[in-house]
Amino acid sequence: MKFRGKIVDGTCLNHFTRISNMISKLAKTCTLRISPDKLNFILCDKLANGGVSMWCELEQENFFSEFQMEGFSAENNEIYLELTSENLSRALKTAQNARALKIKLTNKHFSCLTVSVELFSMSSSSRIVTHDIPIKVIPRKLWKDLQELLVPDPDVSIYLPVLKTMKSVVEKMKNISSHLVIEANLDGELNLKIETELACVTTHFKDLGNPPLASESTSQDRNPEHMAEAHIDIRKLLQFLAGQHVNPTKAVCNIVTDKMVHFDLLHEDVSLQYFIPALS
Questions:
Q1: Fewer Cβ atoms within 10 A, N terminus or C terminus of the chain?
Q2: How far is the CA of 197 from the CAs of 191, 227, 233, 243, in angstroms?
Q3: Cα-flanking dihedrals φ and ψ of residue 11, to 5°?
């Protein structure tokens, strides 16, 4: 299996660095899936066991000026690598305002993702900083556990408020309770609620709007004011919100009552899906 890519455009380089930084906040270790036209960062903890899942996707042509890969085989032209997210994020931090970035799959006594950063220099010769990130190549038989999750039809789909505002609310709620209820309806209303023996706190967001498709596909006889809700771990919601440093182009929350909350975000040309299971 072979992979090499090069980014020379400064805007693309900074955008790729931001994505890597976001992933490091969302998942300690993740799977990097490389295919001829896409890169995916994947986290597939079993939802049934209370773990979160993530599927981040970007089109390689929007970032790389050069991109070559040979996958497992002609029919399965993909590569799946397991890596520590922070190692990649740390390596890419040195690439901010760099002249070029090269990423290559190498073998230096152990399998590596080698990141070479070409920095601007006062002299005619360029300075190159190289990072060897240890990776584990995932065998073909385990790929089936790393596919995009099928999202059940949500009971309610709603646009999210400004994520920074939502984060500051959830941070305060975390001091009172370890879990919260997220509820929404087809009337553009979203509530975040915590209930303890000592206090009951609710934050209301109104006039958020609902994606047009959701309003049509959800049962016609559903009362628009009726709330769909899910009880979730507050730390998992906060971890998701803490990873969002740039307000996305589109941010939607899908609630499957008592089963899961699915966040669907679009950052320019990068999509992020994040799944938090409901507590029983």
A1: C
A2: 20, 23, 18, 31
A3: -65, -45
| Tokens found for residue 195 | 């209930």
Evaluate if residue 47 carries a pLDDT over 80. Answer: no
Q: How far apart are CA 208 and CA 149, in angstroms?
A: 26
- Residue 120: CB atoms within 10 A of its CB come to 9
- Whether 16 and 7 have beta carbons less than 8 Å apart is answered as yes
Residue 95: Cβ within 10 Å count: 24
The 10s digit of each residue's pLDDT in 56-102 is 999 999 999 999 999 999 999 999 999 999 999 999 988 877 889 99
How far is residue 236's CA from residue 256's CA, in Å, rounded to a whole number? 17
pTM, entire model: 0.90
- Select from 59, 58, 66, 54 the least CA-distant residue to 27: 54
Instruction: Count CB neighbours of 55 within 10 A.
Output: 20
- Nearest-5° Cα angle at 75, 71 to 77: 20
Which residues lie closer than 8 Å to 2 by C-beta, 6 or more apart? 68, 69, 70, 105
Hey, what are 274's tokens? 């994040």
Q: Rounded to a whole number, what is the largest CA-CA distance in the chain?
A: 71
Which three-class secondary structure state does DSSP give residue 135?
A: coil
Q: Strands 127-134 and 260-267, how do they pair?
A: unpaired
73's CB contacts (< 8 A; 6+ apart) are: none
Q: Count the alpha carbons within 13 Å of 168 in the hemisphere toward its beta carbon.
A: 4
Residue recorded with tokens 């090269």: 102
Structure tokens at 156: 């309610």
DSSP state of 207: -
